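Hey there, shall we discuss this one?
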Amino acid sequence: MSRTTTTATRKALRTLTQSSRPQLISSSSSIHKCRKLHNHAHAAAPQQEPECPERLLKTQLRAFFREMAQPVAVVTSWMPSKSSNTRHEGSLTRNTQAPAFVHHTQPVSKFHGATLSSFASIAMDPYPLVSFALRVPSRMATTLSSLPKSSSSHLVINLLSAGQADAAIKFSRPDLHPEPFREGGGVKYRLTEDELPVLDGVLGAMSCQLVAGPIPLHDLGALGNAWGPDSSSLAGGACHTSPQLEDGEVASELFIARVTRIEALADTTTDERTLNSPLLYYRRKYTSCADS
């Protein structure tokens, strides 16, 4: 082979090697870049923090109670006039230490109602007692706290029948239905001898008299006072804490009332299931035994 041919061959091989080298470098650079992007994405991915025990407990508790069908009741009473804000000795008022009593200098004006999610019978002897809780602030809680102590009845508990889901919604959404007794012809009712409204078509109704002022359920310290000053009792322990409510949480007050009179009972002579079956709240919707 001649020297010229050998030199030409060497040049061709050198050219071929140089042309393939950038591709190898480029390929290696791409792999390195991909690894950097993967590591960056892995480092930037937010790590989910464990849910705090109290919040987890509330989540689980809500899921627990969703599996319990609850009867639906509506409490009805008077609504004090907007101009009547003066309170004096003689009627129920809120107090976190002990219930006090004041009375209105101006008469009440209209009716009001609220759907209850926690109505229960708590005693039969020696006095028939019922209880329910209301969110605060709310018009109904303010109303019941403002009624004169001397009234023979302060409110009516209406147990809704299976066909009254619309009434339950109206009395549970004051933002959409601020005056359910008036708007659109209003919810139908009749008056008791104390001039309190009993809703038409209910499964049952009872007149009640509040036995004391509301009990603040958001203040365990106030509840602990009922145990006395003994340091060995619950009042001397951790009950003297009133936690701050977080966003989305609501405070409630407990009302205890004595049943004074039965105003309505279910009609057991009819076979109409929507009239003699209760309205139930189950898994976040209204239903009834009649639907089964």
